[in-house]
Amino acid sequence: MEVKRQKLGNGSGGEFRARQLAARAMLRGELEGPELDKHVEDSLLLTTLDKAQNWARGNAMFPATFGLACCAIEMMAIVGARVDVARFGSEAFRASPRQADLMIISGRVSIKMAPVVRRIYDQMLEPKWTIAMGACSSSMGVFNNYAIVPADKFMPVDIHVPGCPPRPEALMHGILKLRAQILSNPDQDWRSRYGGRGTEEVVEPVPTDA
Amino acid sequence: MPDATGLELIAQELRDRDSEGVLDTTFFREKAAITVTRETVQATLEHLRGKGYGFMASVHGVDYFPEEPRLGVHYELLDMSTVDRITVKVRVPLDDPHVPSVTPEWPTADHQEREIWDMFGVIFDGHPDHRRILMPEDYEGHPQRRDFPVGGEPVHFTHNESRQTRYTR
Amino acid sequence: MSTPEVRKPEGARGGLSYREMEESVELSHIAHEDEGEQELLTLNMGPHHPATHGVLRLLTTLEGEVVRDVKPIIGYVHTGIEKTAEDKAYWKAIPVVERMDYLSYYFNAMAYCGAVETLIGLEVPPRAQYLRVLHLELNRIASHLIWLATGALDLGAISVFWYGWRDRDRILDLFEMSSGQRMHTRYFQVGGVMEDIPVGFEQRVRAFCKDFPKRLDQFEALIDKNQIVLQRLRGVAAVDEQTLLGFGVTGPLLRATGNPWDLRKAAPYSSYDHFDFKIPVGTVGDNYDRYRVRMAEMRESVKIIEQALDGLPEGPYITPDRKYALPPRHELATSMEALIHHFKLVTEGFRVPPGEAYYPIESPRGELGCFVRSDGSSKPARVHMRDPSFVNLQAFGEMVRDTYIADLIATLAMLDPILGGIDR
After folding, report:
1. Cα distance between residue A156 and residue B19, in whole Å
2. ipTM of this model?
3. Is the CB of C241 inside 8 Å of chain B's CB atoms?
């Protein structure tokens, strides 16, 4: 297999050099007229505010450190160097839910832990997303019994990653899928597909003692 | 392991102290086990500690449903110098599930007896902190009894459930 | 809109709500006569905390920054593993039981399979025993690497986290090569192992064993004589041996005090007596000794792995008794008995004669025992795992009494609790 190296200044490399010279000229204030127009067209990207916002949000998701059980070990493995989540901007795992916007429920949610999970989810600020990692949090997993509860029952989940535990690559695929969803749909309409809501207060009248 | 004769000697010593105490001895797969009454549990464990079994490896509960008496508590003792193990078993009925707690003399039984209370409902008299350890504080029921249902969610294959033919109602 | 009223759920105890019941739990009242009136602060290090190694809730009573008492509250990842295992056939309970102590999954399976084999009276072939030892020691190294990575992360040596995970990924590659899964591999079966090791596995393991002591040298060069590590770990949270034995503590915590109790040497199982290795012990029993004991244990494990590869005997990798192990697939086409055995094993499973067995092994955290009671049917009547972290956690209060909060974090890291095993 041949590796072709291109020298700058020859053939297609000449374009880069020309743009470099034009940028230098613009900084000096020497570009005029159609040259200036062409340079501006080449250097600007036009988009909507929503798209720009989603691009920023999708590429800088801060996961909350929410490791519950075995899946947490594979979640820590995506921080490692082999499957590097820092490539996609999500390396900063925040311990405080106020600073996080992605909650990866990695592991089995027991009935004692469920109110704690919900409370931490409530403390996260909008916009927030959830990945139910592994079989136990998505459905009941290996243990279909009295002690655990699937995450769908008490909080909206955007992505379910199957596996027991899912490989770090699988979790990475889930995170990238979430990123694609964020980038593609600005109004985040896809949540209404399954009736997932954010935090709501359920107000019920206090029963008077009889 | 104390062999079968060693086990009988221990049982005889225990019977000398309390003739009603020892209910049964078992020697199964090279492992010795003594079944005692609940009143003699503490004395039995102290006697065995005197014989060298100073390490309590495990305290666990068993539900012998449908045999009576239903609830059992097993104490696994270990003699580190001779690498000997012996089990002490206690059986209590469901309507009177009291067993004296051994936590004051064997601190390792603390959390383990709480777990047996949580999972089986055996009440340990004299335990310093007798409350649930694994289930939520306000949980009702003792989950690991044999007649407690396993629970769980029915499996839903939702993506095409409406299009599937129903074979049963 | 008026402030919403929270409806209190109907409590079981006299109408008290859950919050009120929680608040009514008393912590130990410690009277300090010589210091007069001191106000003790109760701090909840809540189940969601980056330093608690899982969902452990610690109710700490602080006086200033000194910890006076700590009450661990567990149960936040209670999965009902023992109850689920009663619902499944003996063969199918292996994956359930494996997920208990989720860093040392081979050990969970080993304890359970050992207990069932004791009940049946089944002989495990020598090749299977050596393969089991090989995978158990690889798992021990992997578990200690995660302990080192997360422990150093707690202390602040964050880069060790990445180095630890790099080597652990190599071990998981080996597991994937032999069984197809990185974690929870279901490799150990009742009577032996699931499959023989593939071609090339031995070379990869030998390459790993050649490299790994150098990695350990690098870890030790980084951490061992580091002034911050020494100040944080040396002399901190030492507990004497008798107190630990009273609490039922085993494993590296007990060996750090100088007691060389290790079930691999004391009561060898699965042909551990064929191997020549040492038991590292500490002297004082403080956090630094616990750290050194586990680092030295990793080196001894490498030696065991190399000896296991050198002496790997030929033979079957699972018991030839067809009543308990699946026949090889090529026999299903020719032999009627093999087909019937296969059918019986896959549908109902094998039946185990009634009895009770307790099988203890040495896991990376201490004595892991599995109690199985069988009533003659094809499902176990009771499975109980005596988890070492569950028992070791009882000594934690004693370890951190009268130390600082920072020492509490460091001691928790050196205690190496795994909440999956504690809560089961």
Report:
1. 64
2. 0.89
3. no
